[in-house]
Structure prediction request, 131 residues.
Amino acid sequence: MTNWKAVTVALGLALGWFVGNPAVALGPAPDPRAEVQVNVARVEGLTQHLRNNPQDVDEMEHLAALYMANGCYDAALGPLARALQLDPHRRRLWVALDLAVKKSARVRITDADLTTLASEFRKSVESKASH
Prediction:
């Protein structure tokens, strides 16, 4: 049985190399504005979920990962701090927090800072529910 998708991709790559520009085979570049809109929608969706499920540590971790993937390390600190309040034994949260602190504008973070960040994050999610 022929895998037509693989054949099409191979022909496209061959055509791209033949004309001297392999990018031709890949089609138009994605629109960066569309990617930003998708990320904003994902943040809004996660925030809405957390509004309805304020104890969901997994989604707090996903939100922090989304912020970090987009270079927003300071923004990731709030959901990580709150997630750690709820599940302090989850090692990967501590690893993510360590990375976020190192890449953020902060030099270090104290327990008091974490408590404040967690409280601010919780309040921000709750306040969005009232709007």
In short: The helical segments are 4-18, 23-26, 32-52, 57-69, 73-86, 91-103, 111-129. The radius of gyration is 21 Å. The mean pLDDT is 82. The CA atoms of residues 37 and 72 lie 16 Å apart.
